[in-house]
UniProtKB/TrEMBL annotation:
CDD domains, A to Z: HAD_KDO-like
GO molecular function per UniProt: hydrolase activity, acting on ester bonds; metal ion binding; N-acylneuraminate cytidylyltransferase activity
Cofactors: Mg(2+)
Sequence similarity: Belongs to the KdsC family.
Protein name listed in UniProt: 3-deoxy-D-manno-octulosonate 8-phosphate phosphatase (KDO 8-P phosphatase)
Record text on subunit structure and interactions: Homotetramer.
Pfam family, one: Hydrolase_3
Keyword list, A-Z: Hydrolase, Magnesium, Metal-binding
Residues annotated as binding substrate: 19
Residues bound to Mg(2+): 17, 110
Organism: Bacteroides luti
Length: 173
C-alpha cells in the first residue's frame, strides 16, 4: 500500500465521483432501466467520519438517481451535484461556496469526464482501475479499485495526517 505524497494537513475538502469511484464501474440495471449501484460500507464509514470532523465533502456525479442522493445525504454530505454534465463547473461552485483554494481540495475520479477537475484540484486521485488518461493526471493512484475501498483509502490517509483518525467520533455512526 502506498501513501499520498502531499501535505494532507492542507486538505479542507474532498470531492468524489460516484460511478467507478464510490461504486464499481459495472452496475446492474433495474428492470425499469434505472442504474443500480453497489456501495462500499468502509467508504461510507470514512466519509461520514470526515464530515463529523469538519471536512467538506462533495459528490460530483453524472448520475441522477435518488438512491445516490439518499445514500450520501445519509452520510452527512451536504454538497451533492447530481446530473453533473460538466464537472468543472460544479467543482468551481463547491470551491467558491466555501472560499477554498485548489490546493485545499482532493478530488477522486476515474474517467474522462473527471479530467478537468483532476487537472485543476490540488490533489488529484483515482482508483487503481481508472482510465489511463486519469491515471496520468493523478498525483495518487489508490491500490483499491473503484467501489472497493478507494474512497476509504484516501479519506483515511487525510484523517490520519490531520490527527482525526481513531479518536472521539470514530466509534459511532
Amino acid at each position: 500500500m502506498s501513501t499520498i505524497n502531499y501535505d494532507l494537513k492542507k486538505i479542507k475538502a474532498m470531492a468524489f465521483d460516484v460511478d467507478g469511484v464510490l461504486s464499481p464501474e459495472t452496475i446492474p440495471l433495474h428492470p425499469s432501466g434505472e442504474p443500480m449501484r453497489c456501495v462500499n460500507i468502509k467508504d461510507g464509514y470514512a466519509i461520514q467520519l470526515a464530515v463529523k470532523h469538519g471536512l467538506l465533502v462533495a459528490i460530483i456525479t453524472g448520475g441522477r438517481t435518488n438512491a445516490v442522493r439518499v445514500r450520501f445525504e445519509g452520510l452527512g454530505v451536504k454538497d451533492l451535484y447530481l446530473g453533473s454534465s460538466i464537472k468543472i463547473n460544479d467543482y468551481n461552485d463547491f470551491k467558491n461556496k466555501y472560499n477554498l483554494t485548489d490546493e485545499e481540495i482532493l478530488f477522486m475520479g476515474d474517467d474522462i469526464p473527471d479530467l478537468e477537475v483532476l487537472q485543476t484540484c490540488g490533489l488529484p486521485c483515482c482508483p487503481s482501475d481508472a482510465a489511463p488518461e486519469v491515471k496520468a493526471a493523478s498525483m495518487y493512484i489508490s491500490h483499491k479499485n473503484g467501489g472497493y475501498g478507494c474512497g476509504r483509502d484516501v479519506v483515511e490517509q487525510v484523517l490520519k495526517a490531520q490527527g482525526k483518525w481513531m479518536n472521539g467520533e470514530a466509534f459511532g455512526w
